[in-house]
Write a structure and sequence with these properties.
Elements: E1 27-28, H1 40-48, H2 63-73, E2 80-83, H3 85-97, E3 104-107, H4 113-120, E4 125-128, E5 148-151, H5 163-171, E6 178-181, E7 202-207, E8 220-223, H6 226-237, H7 246-256, H8 259-282, E9 286-287, E10 294-298, H9 304-313, E11 316-317, E12 319-320, E13 330-333, H10 337-353
Helix pairs in contact: 1-7, 2-7, 3-6
Length: 357
């Protein structure tokens, strides 16, 4: 049989998501999920949810959630775009805004979906190397380009750019769209949202997956100028009119209503992260000053892949990237204090057995 049809296939190397194991005794610290449940109001909304309305399509404009987000962030509803997780929002933004023959710019060590989307949509791109400390240098993004995208804090490093540095990048790129991916901003960073009113070309992307404990519902959103959001919606409605399901719209709206719980949980994770830095340092690990809900750490006397596999055998899951420059690092999500204590106990025993502690 002829396989000539394969010549017309759009081939890409897909993104590899974090492993989703299912063991009753596991400690899952590999996909930056929140170890605490969503706000109590979310549970209440689940209990009160009726099945009958599910026979109807959801509102195409996701009005209830858009209105709640606009009120929460003190912007116009015309400045809010929602999607099925921030991945959906980012992919739609790539498709909508990055259509130049010039390459878009993003860090060489960053969220590994960026180059996948660029390949998928046939967008030329250029990776800008992080410095020796794995920090992003704003001046590397001042040259001619077709757009800029970067996470802040960066992933997987967890390192944060101050708002002044973010504005430097935006101000030097006012003829293209700049996307700031703020998936982890609630864990200790200063958001770029105040810059949206100043720069029409800035799009800030957020998610409910991390700080709001709702990774399983897939809720993401973007805030930008009314013009940017209109273009995004035009592309969305040309692709899929009903992107958000009814439960996600209702439960996402409920999550925004409990600010005190949100603050309590993020502060709890930050406190555990700072304690984890001290514990890891005492064990001889090296890492940057993460402002995310994870720590990107390496031990100068231990092979990262071997440690990753040893942890996995004990059903302690962390993330390992077998890539240049970072193949001796492990990304460790911040879990509960009890989970982290079990991790530290294992690491101490492991290092002692190898005579490096």
């Amino acid at each position: 049989m002829s396989n000539a049809w394969e010549q017309q296939v759009r081939r890409v190397v897909p993104y590899t998501p974090g492993e989703q194991p299912d063991f009753p005794d596991m400690i899952k610290l590999n996909t930056n999920e929140n170890p605490y449940p969503p706000a109590p109001g979310v549970q209440k909304a689940i209990q009160e949810m009726e099945a009958e309305p599910l026979r109807l399509y959801p509102a195409p404009g996701a009005d209830a959630l858009v209105d709640a987000l606009a009120e929460y962030h003190k912007v116009k509803k015309e400045q809010v775009f929602v999607g099925v997780g921030s991945d959906d929002v980012l992919a739609m933004a790539f498709l909508t805004f990055f259509n130049s023959e010039k390459p878009i710019l993003f860090p060489d060590i960053t969220y590994s979906f960026y180059d996948v989307w660029a390949d998928l949509f046939r967008i030329p791109f250029q990776r800008q190397p992080l410095d020796q400390e794995l920090s992003l240098r704003p001046e590397d993004y001042f040259g001619e380009n077709g757009g800029v995208v970067f996470p802040n804090p960066n992933a997987p490093t967890g390192l944060l750019l101050p708002l002044t540095a973010v504005e430097e990048i935006v101000s030097h790129n006012q003829d293209v769209v700049v996307i700031v991916d703020e998936a982890y901003i609630d864990f200790g960073g200063e958001s770029a949202l105040p810059l949206v009113s100043k720069y029409e070309n800035l799009l800030v992307v957020r998610t409910f997956s991390k700080s709001r404990s709702m990774a399983g519902l897939r809720i993401g959103y973007a805030i930008g100028s009314e013009k940017l959001i209109k273009y995004l919606n035009d592309a969305k409605y040309s692709f899929n009119s009903y992107t958000m399901n009814r439960p996600s719209l209702e439960l996402g709206t409920a999550a925004l209503a409990d600010e005190s719980y949100f603050c309590e949980m993020t502060e709890k994770i930050i406190a555990t992260r700072e304690r984890a830095k001290k514990e890891l340092a005492e064990l001889g690990f090296c890492f940057g000053d993460s402002k995310a809900n994870f720590i990107f750490a390496m031990h100068p006397k231990v092979n990262a892949e071997e440690l990753f596999l040893a942890l996995k055998e004990k059903h302690i899951f962390v993330r390992y990237f077998k890539k240049p420059r970072i193949d001796q690092y492990l990304r460790i999500t911040i879990g509960t204090d009890e989970q982290m204590d079990q991790l530290f106990a294992f690491l101490k025993e492991y290092l002692q057995k190898r005579g490096v502690l």
